[in-house]
Design a protein that fits this description.
Blueprint (H helix, E strand, L loop, with lengths): L3 E6 L5 H13 L4 E6 L8 H9 L14 H6 L2 E4 L13 E4 L10 H21 L6
Parallel strand pairs: 1-2, 1-3, 3-4
Helix pairs in contact: 1-4, 2-4
Length: 134
């Protein structure tokens, strides 16, 4: 079975999009990733896009979207990032809450550190799911 992971944050413009980018890069077609937000921004955080581009991952074409009940139900693991009570909670779902600084309004140096922390967490999650990282 191919595992599905849903990354959620408030604006779906920074952390969850960076996690999605890392997951797609590292998991390839061995797992599925989705992302969403409770209050999607109009566009991605340009500093997050730049930080990901530095490591060869282009997330510029992604669009912040609102999470849906269907996406939550489809996920084997739901990873929340700073959305508190606005993220959906459904019985029987596995949840992980990643405490990560919000990259909004931060300089590139700070966003790089967040990016690198997300990479490590995505790698650890893939290992837990028995999905070999590329």
């Amino acid at each position: 079975m191919t595992p599905t992971v849903l990354f959620l944050c408030v604006h779906n413009a920074g952390r969850s999009q960076m996690a999605l980018g890392w997951f797609k890069r590292l998991a390839g077609d061995r797992a599925v990733a989705l992302s969403g937000g409770s209050e999607p921004a109009e566009s991605l955080n340009p500093v997050a896009v730049a930080a990901m581009r530095e490591v060869g991952i282009d997330i510029a074409a992604e669009v912040p979207t609102r999470w849906t009940d269907d996406a939550v139900h489809a996920a084997d693991v739901v990873v929340t990032m700073g959305c508190g009570d606005t993220c959906p909670v459904f019985a029987g779902k596995r949840y992980l809450d990643w405490q990560l600084d919000d990259p909004a309004g931060q300089p590139i140096e700070t966003v790089r550190a967040i990016r690198d922390e997300i990479e490590g967490r995505v790698r650890a999650l893939l290992a837990e799911l028995h999905v070999p990282a590329a």
